[in-house]
TrEMBL record:
This is General stress protein 17M-like domain-containing protein. It comes from the Bacteria. Residues 10-104 form the General stress protein 17M-like domain. PANTHER family: STRESS RESPONSE PROTEIN YSNF (PTHR38463). Pfam families: YflT (PF11181). InterPro entries: GSP17M-like_dom, Stress_Response_Assoc.
Length: 114
């Protein structure tokens, strides 16, 4: 499932190699490095893929201070869903994407600045 709205685009890929390819494709289409985010279920995997792909992780700037602090007390699944919602997706979309991350897949998100 891919989702496109005025604010964000998301693509679920099978692994880190495909995530790097998706990031490169987005850069070719005009997205800047600071507009492309990757998300995996495990934080260290997210870090590695973001570094390799020259993409960002969803952080305080995207989430806001309150959600970022709240994530310290959330389960990983709840944290991931909150991060996805902070990028402009609905709760239902966040549930779907988080379930895909549970399966070991990677989510690539591109979002133009507001």
């Amino acid at each position: 499932m891919n989702s496109t709205n005025e604010q964000a685009y998301a693509k679920v890929v099978e692994n880190g190699v495909q995530a790097v390819e998706a990031v490169k494709e987005l850069q070719i289409t005009g997205y800047l490095a600071d507009q492309i985010f990757v998300l995996a279920h495990e934080k260290d995997r997210t870090d590695r893929i973001a570094d390799t792909a020259d993409a960002k992780e969803i952080g305080i700037k995207e989430e806001g201070v309150f959600d970022s602090l709240a994530n310290l007390f959330r389960s990983r699944g709840d944290e991931l869903r909150a991060k996805i919602v902070s990028m402009g997706f609905t709760e239902a979309e966040a549930d779907f994407y988080e379930s895909e991350l549970d399966k070991g897949k990677v989510l690539v998100i591109a979002k133009k600045k507001d």
